[in-house]
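Bench notes, afternoon.
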Amino acid sequence: MTKEVSEEGGVHVHHHGKDYHDPPPAPLLDAGELKRWSFYRAIIAEFVATLLFLYVSIATVIGYKKQTEPCDGVGFLGIAWAFGGMIFVLVYCTAGISGGHINPAVTFGLLLARKVTPLRAVAYMAAQCLGAICGVGLVKSFMKPYYDSLGGGANTVAAGYSGRTALGAEIIGTFVLVYTVFSATDAKRKARDSHVPVLAPLPIGFAVFMVHLATIPITGTGINPARSFGAAVIYNNKKAWDDQWIFWVGPFLGAILAAAYHQYVLRAGAVKALGSFRSNPSI
């Protein structure tokens, strides 16, 4: 809404339909990205961010498990804060460079919503997985006496839980995360909250924290295929590899559901498409 003052002193008010603009969908093919430094800079940012994320979070897990007394160390709460806090910090640092995905499931969800190109999505996922491997590798090199004996921070289905339960936990947990990412980065919200730059990273990090509290007892909390893959590669344990599919299928299904819910229910994409179909007599 804008105001103009005429020479006679009257005020004319102009109303605009929206105070924000949705970005256009990302193209399905953009070979020009390969010629831009910003593309490679974003890939490097995703690699470094995922490396730092895995280093701090897995080191926290190993450090906690190394304690012998029940009240020693940070506990589950501290582990959840380590994961959620690092996501908050790293999304804040890299959002303006790469979007701060740090998670193949987040990248996949944004790809489905056409927020990123397929080429960029594949490059991000590769960088995230490689960064995760390097981050966990650093943990093993620094904490070698304890790393293998304390589980290597690898995601596995805990005793007493079935694979279907673990899969459901990963689907729901990733849905919460990716839904939060969509909501925090929505064009409408960004336009109205642009004066508070930490608002997007904060709920995303907090979502990771809350999901960890709920699912650490079940799967150790994956909700990030790169995190699970990096730990499995370095730990290289049969149980971790046998359960690995859960930590890819679950997060990707959760991302699909979150993308569909946000784009076609909350943003009424399906209703708009149906209305357009009905209003066009030539179809």
